[in-house]
Structures are given as C-alpha cells and as structure tokens.
Amino acid sequence: MKSFVITITGNKISQTASTKCLNSAKKFCPSIEFEVQDAIVPKRVDASLAREKIQWNYPWDGEVFCFASGLKKSAYKTVNPKNRIACALSHFYLWKKCLESQEPILVLEHDAIFIKTLNPDYIIESKFDIIGINNPLGATRRARVFHEKILQSNNSIIITPTIDEINIPQGLAGNSAYVIKPRGARNLIDAVYKYGLWPNDALMCKQIIPNLGVTRDFYTTLQGTPSTTTG
Length: 231
What we know:
This protein is an alpha/beta fold. It has one domain (2-222): Spore Coat Polysaccharide Biosynthesis Protein SpsA, Chain A, CATH 3.90.550. Helices cover 33% and strands 19% of the residues. It is built from 7 helices and 11 strands. α3 packs across α6 (182-195). It is globular, with a radius of gyration of 16 Å. The model has no long low-confidence stretch (mean pLDDT 95).
C-alpha cells in the first residue's frame, strides 16, 4: 500500500514534522512504502480551483446552514483563508490519486507520528471505505467522548462515533491519518462537486460519506507542532 505524507516544501515547521513522521514510519512500518506529497500552497489555490472547476463553499465567519446536506457549517479559526483551502486541496489531490490508481492509500499530514506497528491488511479487507487510524485525544473536538466511544466497542474497526447533534459534521479525528479506498475517494470527489469544497475534515463526515470508520487501536498521534492551516 502506498502512503503519502503531505508536506509543505520550504516550510521549516512542515518539513521538520514530516521528517519525524517518516522516521517513525520506518521504525514501526518498514514494509509500507512512504513518500512525500508536496502540499498545495496558497499561491496555487486559485489556479487549482479553476483547473478542477470546483468552488470553496464554507463560511469564514459564524455559522451557515447548508440546505443541500442538512448540515450546519461552522467557521474554523483561520487567519489566512488560502491556507485552509490549500490544505483541503492537498487532500483532494490524494483522493484523485487513489481513485485513478484504483488502490487503497494511506494519507498522513506532516504532524502525524506513528506510535504502533501498523499491519494494514485487516483495514484494507474491512467493509469500510475510509478508516481513521489516529488517536483522537488532542486531535479533535470532544476528543474524550470520541475516545471513550471507540474503546466501548470490541470490534477492531467501528463506525465513526456520534459525538454531537446530528446536523454537525462528524468524521475522523482531525483527518491527519487515514486509509482511503477508491470507493471512498469517489464518494468524496462527488461530494466536492455536489456541495463545494469544504475543510477536508468537515466534508469527510458520516452524514455525507458512507462507510466511514475508525480503528480501535491507535497507530498514530499528533506531534503537537504549530498549525500551518489556522495561520
């Protein structure tokens, strides 16, 4: 299974974190092929959106109700909006790569780090199309509720837990580490063209994307590096 670490070339924070991520991968997952995926940067956002014929459709302030999806879209703290869009596009292009290759891939953001050996076979063979492998603690809102609901199950992979009202997008723990299969990629790309481009962790939610799961064992956690998206 190919694996990609999204990395902002020329950004010291991103490249340092990416190196730590790759070193942890060599330690815990020596049989998996990892490579650096150049992130979309803010100056490439407009051209990328135009080339793909997609539009950003998420608020920068307050809350907006999306009648198409039935979900409430709440603004993320973002100083430079193009940083947020660039992050979403970086994931979008990996979804396209997964669909075009017709093979599952592992997607990692630069601040993920492995803490346990990952054997992806049971994940790939599961009924789920997208599977988060990250420890939710410190990675998402209502993280302790998320964490406790996962540990209540005896299954190796469970449906993404419900941690809030049903009209709030709920998906993986930060979207920093997940396995995606071609059908999941197809569903996400279709969602982008139906609803517009959203922050990747908002669009990849259980209300829009079917067969979204998380592993009971946590294989990665976050390094705690400064965010390159909110700035």
